[in-house]
Amino acid sequence: MTSASRWTVAPDGGRPDGRSCVHLGAMSTPSDPLSENCEECSALGFGWMRLRWCTTCGHVGCCDSSQGRHAYSHHVATGHPLVLSLAPDEHWAWCYVDELFLISAPTTRGSAV
Predict the structure, then answer these.
(1) Phi-psi category of 25—alpha, beta or left, where left has phi over 0 and alpha has psi -120 to 50?
(2) Is 43 helix (H, G, I), strand (E, B) or coil?
(3) What are the sequence ranges of the domains in the chain?
(4) Burial environment of residue 74 by CB neighbours within 10 A (0 to 12, 13 to 18, 19 or more)
(5) Which of 4, 45, 48, 105 could, after both became Cys, cross-link 66 (CB 3.0–4.6 A)?
(6) 8 and 113 in contact (C-beta within 8 Å)?
């Protein structure tokens, strides 16, 4: 995923249309090599399912389906609102504060980001 992506709120059949995320302006994407594990899980001897990257500080934690739920724990401890999925087959982010699923759509050359 590159910085040449624009993020939008994904349709959610269970919630009203027209919701927005006030944190989208702070969305970034990783540019440096990222950790390939959840450090907290590694320290505890846990495994993990998928990894999430905090767009505020770069912390890498495990997903909510993992035993540790360290990405969520990081949000609770810091208030950092956005995480980006690091799974190669997933191109989405989640805003914990606004409880919104965000999807990335590549921008075309010359269009606004």
Answers:
(1) alpha
(2) helix
(3) 5-11+36-106
(4) buried
(5) 48
(6) no
What is the DSSP secondary structure assignment for residue 25, as one 8-state letter? Answer: G
* pLDDT tens track, the chain, 113 positions: 444 368 888 887 677 677 888 888 877 777 775 788 999 999 999 999 999 999 999 999 999 999 999 999 999 999 999 999 999 899 899 999 999 999 887 655 444 43
d(CA 106, CA 34) in angstroms, rounded, equals 21
HSE-CB for 71 with a 13 A CA cutoff: 28
Rg from Cα positions in the chain: 14
**CATH of region 5-11+36-106:** 3.30.40.10
Full-model pTM: 0.81
Q: Which residues contact 16 (CB under 8 A, 6 or more apart)?
A: none
State the Cα–Cα distance between residues 113 and 103, nearest whole angstrom. Answer: 14
Residue 6: in which H helix or E strand, if any?
A: strand 5-9
